[in-house]
Task: structure prediction
Amino acid sequence: MEIIDTHAHLYSAEFDTDRDAMIDRAVKAGITKIVLPNIDSESIGVMMALAEKYPELCRPAMGLHPCHVLPESWKTDLELCYQWLKKQPFVAVGECGMDLYWDQSTKKIQAEALEVQCSWALEFGLPMIIHSRNATPECIAIVRPWAEKGVKGVFHCFSGTVEEAREITEMDWYLGIGGVITFKKSDLGSILKQVNSKYLILETDAPYLAPVPYRGKRNESSYLAYVNETLGEHLLIGRKELAKLTTENARRLFVKL
Result:
């Protein structure tokens, strides 16, 4: 059974003590590709080192996370990301977007940074990985004109409403589904029943948002099996069939995988 983890920060310090063993567990669990989204200027080096060590498994994406769009450095950090995009191939632009949960004071420059990265996606012919915590309507409004120009993307860790899901998929964009769907109080499963399954892809967001039965602990790519199984139960699709479907979806979006 082949599964693609479309969003994992395996270069994070949380994995420094057992990274190789963790990756071995992922491979044994059927994970064949892992997309590594960048977050800031400091994460580039460790992310690229991991991608170089596991070139067939780990595929990097380049962008600036909205929580790292800081007044004193965001333009310089964006320029660094852009230079990397010109230097070598990446599978996507991201992780980028808006996050109004932690800090709303940077809302304006977050929006500006997202617009810049949308232009990169168009320039380089790459899909986007969108982070939209407490900001899904704002992100949809910004990316829609770019979607009309042919830019594709995914709203990662989707946990919005059915209306937002429909808006996103009507743009021919995708929904990244992770551990949240396994949480007892989550209504995500019922929402996704109302969405065309050709727009669903799987992710862990490791080391964050571990699925049940590991909720509250460090997440890792091998746990994607729990997401696959739970989503399949909601959609009444067998786990092998769903793994095949979401893998095909991921390859359709991330054409450079």
In short: The longest helix spans residues 107-124. The chain is about 40% helix and 15% strand.
